[in-house]
Amino acid sequence: MTTARSQALASLLLVVSLYSNLMQDPSRVYPSRVREVEAKRTTDFAAELNPAQLRAATHADGPLLIIAGAGTGKTRTLVYRVAHLLENGVRPERILLLTFTRRSAQEMLGRAERLVGSASRAVHGGTFHATAHRLLRRFGQSAGLPADFTIMDQADAEDLMQLSRAKLGFSEKKKRFPKKSTLHHVYSRHVNTEIPVPAILSEDYPQYREFEEDFSKIFADYTARKSERNLVDYDDLLLFWALLVESDGALAEKIAGLYDHILVDEYQDTNQLQSRILRGMCRTHRNITVVGDDAQSIYSFRGATIRNILDFPAQFQGASVVALEENYRSTQPILDVTNTVISRAEERYTKNLFTKREGGEKPWLVTAHDEAAQTRFVVDRILELHEEGVPLHEMSVLFRAGYMSADLEIELTARGIPYEKWGGIKFLEAAHVKDVLAFLRILENPRDEVSWYRLLMLMPGIGETTARGAIDAMALAAWDSDSFGRYEPPPRARAAHTSLVQLLAALRNSPADVEGAVTVEIARVRRLYDDILRERYDRVEPRLSDLDQLQTIAGGYPSRAAFLSALALEPPQATQDFGFGADSEDDVLVLSTAHSAKGCEWDAVFVIWAVDGWFPSARSLGSEDQIEEERRLMYVAMSRPRNHLFVVYPLNVYDTRRGADYSMDQLSRFLDRGVREGMQRVVVDRPESAPPEPAAGPLAVDLRALLKGRFGAT
DNA sequence: TTTTGAAGTCTCTCC
DNA sequence: GACTTCAAAA
Questions:
Q1: Ramachandran angles phi, psi of A683, nearest 5°
Q2: Entry pTM
Q3: Where are the domains of chain A?
Q4: pLDDT at A348
């Protein structure tokens, strides 16, 4: 069976190999690679690119902005630009390719390799955060950052924020005090956008304006806590990088001098802080190429600003601008509809996407009676297309938020259709995985308060007060590694304390630098932890097998530190990391959030839950800007297919949020009259009373029988 | 006083 | 379903 989780694990294994690649000193790779470049035939750029792509790919030095509409060969152009640079003698390790996701970095470097040979492997590529991490491990100490810092993921950062919140006594007294996730969100937004906190509160959280001073106090405490405890959050990675390249010293020169060319993908999704980093990195050469599509800017919730791309020509004087407008992906009827959707957007670079792909069916707008009918329609149509020869991996179902695919997943499982889910429940967010990792993290960084707290709270007889008391005692002893052993617990916690002390001692004494050391450590932790797991959680078996997998994965890392850092920065999201070897031959359907689908394409795409309040999300209806972003998100979703597009919406939704009753819902506002004119409509009724026949084997359902009588065109 | 279980409140997108 | 709040149990 193909589950999201098992695939996530497989992808994590891939990360292992990537990680060791990433950490390799490129100078060691260099000499042999160069010869391969020279031996390689030169690429015939003019024959393989259209005029606009050619201009972008072969652009000489200096800033370049490529405005690339959906499906216009953006990746291709960037890959050829890398090839062009290499063929013109730029050393691969002097090129930095910044992407938004690890997946696109892999894909691009893989394609570049096919084009120009293995030289491209020495090109530095990765996300902003992963690149920041690499630089900070190498140069951070000169900037006052400890060498052994631990990276916190978002949940960790929120937990730490909660500790600050509780410490300052805000947890009980006031009514409606913002919760930890809100606190963290405001903080993160402040760091990434550089908007002052009061302004963020006024704009996004007017109800919390009265707590303005409390926010400042908590943030101050949070910041102090981080540095005392050796912790670094995602935002810090960028922040320290920016500070490093903006300083006046030789260090800034050195870091900026690492690269001669910087290429940035998905530039519309960068934020103010990232823009500062880029300006710092380009202080000497100005060889910066950015690619983006303002119509696909969908990450403002994490501080991305469309201004970066709109203002690029002003920020980098003399920048060339190339627009890619020929769409190679979709048929004309699909393009007509998506062009109409995005034409309603306010401020943008005007692009006129066109295609030579004439013909093809009009996109479908499907009105389903309710959620069950929606699910049935999607599954039936998928099977039908599959029978017509479209492989499952050439189809995807897209939705606004991860939880919206629940019903569909049940049905797919029942009918034996394999699928993989992107952007869903993440392996590393599972409580039991985080529990085990907490043990490893305090070994790595004894000051890691978040992990201590988590771990202590797991132990029977230890609650909030005892946990905090133990942590305070350790802080008082300057986090000496024996300080926990000297701590005197109250009687009810004594047994737990003893076993924990013994475990930690055993772990500290086991050799750390032998192969598979991390796996051994996890096994030891589990001798204590597995019983706790059985006690605390339901569905024990799958959780235990997750931990088995975690042990296996850990075996691939050279050290505990490498393992933990990789997990924070390269979380296995699911199978989006799947593009290798035999596994890519698995024919599985893709379920994805609209966000995670960006940059991908399929033969057939289903967009479900196209209901006002769901897509656009009800939370975004408050402001014009947010609605605009939702519109772009819908545009991203609808512009993924090559040949078949289905937009589905259920009429009656059993909505527990509003008094648990059926309510009539309305089609998403983005499918306005003009858009609908380009579509063909279908109404799908409530499913017949008979349940679907259980599948004899994968895809063995008699479709015609199931579909009979359930279509009624209007 | 502290822990723990149970009822009640919302529920996005990602590095 | 995860997280918070609240009241009973140790």
A1: -115, 130
A2: 0.84
A3: 45-141+236-324, 154-229, 332-423+584-683, 427-572
A4: 67
| Cα–Cα distances in angstroms (integers) from residue A274 to residues A254, A268, A437, A655, in the given order | 19, 11, 30, 40
Distance A311 CA to C4 C1' (A): 44
Question: Which class would CATH give A332-423+584-683?
Answer: alpha beta
Task: Report which residue type is found at A190.
Answer: H
Tokens of A43: 């690429």
- Pick out residues whose CB falls under 7 Å from strand C: A 155, 162, 171, 179-180, 431
Inter-residue contact A616 to A298 (CB < 8 Å): no
Q: Using one digit for the tens of pLDDT, what is the confidence trace for A340-376?
A: 999 988 766 767 889 998 888 999 999 998 888 999 9
Question: Residue written as tokens 């060319």?
Answer: A261
Task: Specify whether domain A427-572 bears CATH 1.10.3720.10.
Answer: no
Q: Give the closest residue to B13 (Cα–C1′).
A: A595
Residues with Cβ within 8 Å of A377's Cβ and at least 6 positions away in sequence, in order, are A366, A368, A648, A684
A45-141+236-324 with A332-423+584-683: one CATH topology? yes
Below-70 pLDDT ranges, chain A: 1-41, 169-176, 347-348, 350, 423-426, 571-585, 654-664, 686-714
In the block, tokens 């590393």 appear at A428
Give chain A's length. Answer: 714
CATH class (in words) of the domain with range A45-141+236-324? alpha beta
DSSP A172: T
Name the nt closest to A425 by C-alpha to C1'. C1
Supply the pLDDT for residue A170: 63
Q: Is the CB of A467 under 7 A from strand B?
A: yes
Q: Say how far A179 CA is from C4 C1', in Å.
A: 9
For position A425, what pLDDT does the model report? Answer: 52
